[in-house]
């Protein structure tokens, strides 16, 4: 391909709103352009990378007998009402009406559509197991689109759905899918890990795992054990909660209280209270108010901990959970913002296990500018339920082996679920088993963010505003750069190299622009092809400058080697060694 004919609108500077390095490099290298917040156009170079990712995904899906389909993005809202997710999905579900006032949704996912299809078309156990997948555009009205392709409102996704006659069959399909995902993310060059996860709005009754690409910009926290193979998303992470005696500490209310009310002016935050009383945040109990399925509840958690709303929602067994608006409990409940305590509240109280084991704690006094000190949980206040409802923190102990847990940041690039009969129950999908008895198919679903994967690879492989694409997904393999396109000797050698490399199956981009070398090199740094060949003043001697990945088998090393002078024949050998085997 001739660079003079290729649409690559590179930028010298990234827009100010581009915070993530992946966002910056994709914009500057002319791979994407923003159309609206969270909505991007993929330009030719970016589309080539995306196509290669898609091809790897298709190869691995086909290898486990998954069959490709294409399902409609425009989905009748009645399907979402059947599943019960029309309300649960909330404002992220993009809803619209046609000219006949019939309601539709722009699909963020396709559980409802695929279940309706199978309900109508699959009637016998002989048709199972069945796994269908697609690569299509999805829509989610994200509250805060950010980081370019990493969190958008329109994006490309691979979603697969399996239907099995029993749980054992689903287990086999699930494991096949996990192995396929492992191969996909390895082939595209990601540094990733598999972690336990929460099912979220997708739901389901079985296990679920996320595949996390390690990245500082990641919005997810990955919790791993320093000794064993335990790994989980922060929202799912479990840890040793203490001794049984601490967890089941009995109420002792009725004995004489030792708590003392103290004046704490202008101390609404935990840090302010701790500083004013000259103690640590872990000695303070936070009282937070939530609304669970429309009913106010109080949540007690240690001052240095954060509520894990996923755990809290599961502990309460509710569908909807959100923090109660401060103005609402200030005006409607007549409670003081910043000075709440677990006393005389006309609502259910749930306490985290760590609160139960506290001694001589500090709480709000339900009075402006006042707190209680020397508070004894179980003596000075009680609770209706206790549970593990906090996020893990570094230093917590692994529930499996007792070693310390450690934290990393990650980007979710894949998610696999065992759905069970959540959707087949709700939507009345059945098949006849071997005895002729109607039975609900056991479902699984499996997603990969294809366009997010492009952004994630860029996040891991960009450094100092230079890119170095892994060979498997690079838009082209070799960047041929003549110093002067007006030099006939240089151009003859360029054409010879291009022809020989192309004959090997290597994809070549020739920078045939009449530009200064510095301009060409800067653009080459942004485009980031795996191998760069510079044809200059030594062309008459059939000598060129060549650089390539320092170790193409080591995905942790993304830096190219220093440029070396070599012959045309040596360049072809290097291409065979570092590129051609990966193109096969």
Characterize the structure shown.
The chain has 584 residues and is of the alpha+beta class. The chain has three domains: 219 residues, BirA Bifunctional Protein, domain 2 (2-Layer Sandwich), CATH 3.30.930; 144 residues, Alpha-Beta Complex (YbaK protein), CATH 3.90.960.10; 108 residues, 3-Layer(aba) Sandwich (Rossmann fold). Helices cover 28% and strands 27% of the residues. It has 17 helices and 31 strands. Strands 3, 7, 8, 9, 10, 11, 12, 21 and 24 form a nine-stranded mixed beta sheet that branches. A five-stranded mixed beta sheet has the order 16-14-15-17-20. It has a five-stranded mixed beta sheet with strand order 28-27-29-30-31, with helices on both faces. Helix 1 packs across helix 13 and helix 2 packs antiparallel against helix 6. The longest helix has 21 residues. The two termini are 20 Å apart. The relative contact order is 0.14. About 2% of the residues have low confidence.
């Amino acid at each position: 391909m001739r660079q003079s004919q290729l649409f690559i609108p590179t930028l010298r500077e990234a827009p100010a709103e581009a915070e993530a390095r992946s966002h910056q490099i994709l914009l500057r290298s002319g791979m994407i352009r923003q159309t609206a917040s969270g909505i991007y156009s993929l330009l030719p170079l970016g589309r080539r990378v995306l196509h290669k990712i898609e091809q790897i995904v298709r190869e691995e899906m086909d290898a486990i007998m998954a069959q490709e389909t294409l399902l409609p993005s425009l989905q009748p809202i009645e399907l979402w009402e059947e599943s019960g997710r029309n309300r649960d999905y909330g404002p992220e579900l993009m809803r619209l009406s046609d000219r006949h006032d019939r309601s539709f949704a722009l699909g963020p996912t396709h559980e409802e559509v695929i279940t309706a299809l199978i309900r109508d078309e699959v009637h016998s156990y002989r048709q199972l197991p069945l796994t269908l997948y697609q690569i299509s555009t999805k829509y989610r009205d994200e509250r805060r689109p950010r980081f370019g392709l990493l969190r958008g409102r329109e994006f490309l996704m691979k979603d697969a759905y399996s239907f099995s006659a029993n749980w054992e069959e689903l287990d086999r399909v699930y494991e096949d899918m996990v192995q396929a995902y492992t191969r996909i993310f390895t082939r595209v060059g990601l540094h990733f890990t598999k972690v336990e996860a929460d099912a979220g709005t997708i739901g389901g009754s079985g296990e679920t795992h996320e595949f996390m690409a390690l990245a500082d910009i990641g919005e997810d926290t990955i919790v791993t054990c320093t000794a064993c193979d335990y790994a989980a998303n922060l929202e799912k992470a479990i840890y040793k909660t203490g001794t049984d005696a601490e967890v089941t500490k009995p109420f002792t209310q009725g004995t004489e209280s030792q708590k003392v009310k103290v004046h704490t002016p202008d101390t609404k935050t935990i840090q302010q209270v701790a500083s004013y009383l000259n103690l640590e945040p872990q000695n303070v109990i936070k009282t937070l108010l939530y609304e669970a399925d429309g009913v106010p509840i109080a949540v007690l958690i240690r001052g240095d901990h954060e509520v894990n709303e996923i755990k809290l929602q599961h502990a309460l067994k509710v569908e909807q959970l959100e923090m109660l608006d401060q103005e609402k409990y200030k005006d409607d409940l007549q409670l003081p913002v910043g000075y709440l305590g677990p006393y005389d509240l006309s609502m259910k109280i749930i306490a985290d296990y760590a609160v139960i084991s506290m001694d001589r704690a500090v709480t709000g006094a339900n009075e402006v500018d006042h707190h209680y000190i020397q508070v004894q949980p179980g003596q000075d206040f009680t609770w209706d339920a206790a549970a593990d409802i906090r996020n893990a923190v570094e230093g917590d102990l692994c529930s499996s082996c007792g070693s310390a847990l450690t934290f990393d940041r990650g980007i979710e690039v894949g998610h696999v679920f065992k759905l069970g009969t959540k959707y087949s129950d709700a939507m009345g999908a059945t098949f006849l088993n071997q005895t002729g008895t109607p039975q609900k198919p056991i479902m699984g679903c499996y997603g990969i963010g294809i366009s997010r994967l492009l952004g994630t690879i860029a996040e891991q492989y960009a450094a100092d505003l230079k890119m170095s694409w892994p060979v498997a997904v690079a838009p082209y393999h070799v960047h041929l750069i003549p110093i002067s396109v007006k030099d006939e000797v240089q151009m003859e050698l360029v054409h010879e190299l291009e022809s020989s490399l192309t004959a090997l199956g290597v994809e070549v981009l020739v920078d045939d622009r009449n530009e200064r070398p510095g301009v060409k090199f800067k653009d080459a740094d942004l485009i980031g092809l795996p191998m760069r060949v510079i044809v200059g003043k030594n062309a008459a001697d059939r000598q060129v400058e060549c650089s390539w990945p320092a170790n193409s088998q080591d995905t942790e090393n993304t830096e190219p080697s220093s440029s070396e002078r070599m012959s045309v024949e040596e360049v072809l050998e290097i291409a065979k060694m570092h590129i051609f085997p990966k193109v096969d």
